[in-house]
Write a structure and sequence with these properties.
Length: 346
């Protein structure tokens, strides 16, 4: 009698314990963000080199991506990497900018594709003289592990506005594919300002009001010396890039649409990269709390971008906003002309 009671208690304890552990696991998986990295699944034992050939199912690949990262971190042996056929490859496509255009969202969303592996950090190889002096081997080391049929992609938004970058990229690979994500220029300028403002506030520093920075006090015209304004004159930088690469090597992503309806934009990028269409609506879900689309890798693992993406912008004086829009208008027209892509910007 006493024995069966103990057994019953043990069974109950076991069932309850499993339930608690299971819920905890689901909670951890669902709440993951980009800041806390996705090494969640117990991948090592599930993976067999035989999985590698042919089309890799999306969920398997995410384990493999995680595995690559894990191997990288643990200083894995060459033998292990050879067995798994994981290698480092220079990027075949780069997200060159533009800062605050949605570069992080684009990179993360593209990494939902089984054939795309992303460099997690901004590499800053071509815009930083010190990094560039380390040579292309340094750059290669910064790339993630990937399978030979996959492509590596990195994003460093400063590339778009740094003069030396196009020539340096051309020297590495003249046929590389270039992704440029843009947003309505006035919104991008406000977003840029908001990021710097937040940085100052964290350091308990004061900062000028947006209106004071974008308008030149002496002329009462738009202040083109202010970097956040200059960066939004997309055509100015693109024309410089076109001295090195033909227009066909660029694909322009609509950053405003990537926010509201990301899938069509991602389909266009898949086409541009000559990848089979794999990212689907299943991989993207709207998170009402965040107010943005988040990423679903598989039934267990989904994540939203970190809180630093999607900041609340300060209110801007409507007349200043209009002035900026009028200022950007002719540059935008030229940008449409060059890229062959028209946006509904004012
Ligand atoms: P805001 O913070 O101004 O809203 P970048 O990664 O180039 O710095 O761009 C940041 C911008 O990406 C954010 O600007 C945000 O609007 C945009 N974004 C696009 N898709 C997003 C997503 N799914 N989640 C969060 N931010 C996203």
């Amino acid at each position: 009698m006493l024995f069966s009671q103990q057994q019953w208690l043990r069974q109950r304890f076991f069932v309850l314990g499993s339930l608690v552990l299971g819920s905890l696991f689901i909670l951890v998986v669902r709440e993951g963000t980009l800041d806390r990295l996705p090494l969640i699944c117990p991948i090592k034992d599930r993976l067999r080199p035989a999985d590698v050939s042919g089309q890799i199912p999306l969920h398997t690949l995410q384990h493999k991506q995680a595995l690559g990262l894990k191997l990288h971190r643990r200083n894995s042996t060459k033998e292990q990497l050879r067995t798994l056929r994981l290698i480092k490859q220079l990027p075949r496509a780069i997200i060159i900018g533009v800062r605050k255009g949605g570069t992080r969202a684009l990179l993360e969303m593209l990494s939902l594709h089984p054939a795309v592996v992303k460099a997690s950090q901004e590499v800053h190889f071509f815009d930083n003289d010190k990094n560039y002096a380390c040579g292309v081997d340094w750059y290669l080391k910064k790339m993630p592990f990937s399978f030979p049929h996959q492509i590596s992609i990195e994003k460093s938004p400063a590339y778009f506005i740094t003069e030396e970058v196009p020539e340096r990229i051309f020297k590495m690979n003249p046929s590389i594919k270039l992704l440029l994500i843009v947003r309505e220029p006035t919104t991008r300028t406000v977003s840029d300002y908001t990021q710097v403002l937040e940085g100052k506030e964290h350091k308990n520093k004061t900062y000028n009001k947006f209106e004071e920075l974008v308008i030149d006090n002496n002329t009462c015209e738009v202040n083109t010396k202010y970097k956040a304004v200059r960066t939004s004159i997309y055509t100015k930088y693109l024309e410089h890039w076109l001295k090195f690469f033909p227009t066909e090597q660029f694909h322009i992503v609509d950053g405003d649409r990537l926010i509201t309806d990301p899938l069509p934009e991602l389909k266009l990028v898949e086409q541009f990269l000559n990848l089979p269409s794999r990212i689907s609506q299943y991989n993207l879900y709207f998170n009402a709390t965040r107010g943005f689309f988040c990423l679903r890798f598989n039934f267990m693992f989904s994540k939203c971008l970190a809180g630093s993406k999607g900041r609340i912008h300060p209110d801007v004086n409507p007349s200043i906003k209009e002035k900026l829009q009028r200022f950007f208008h002719p540059f935008n027209q030229k940008f449409y002309q060059i890229t062959g892509r028209t946006f509904n910007w004012p």
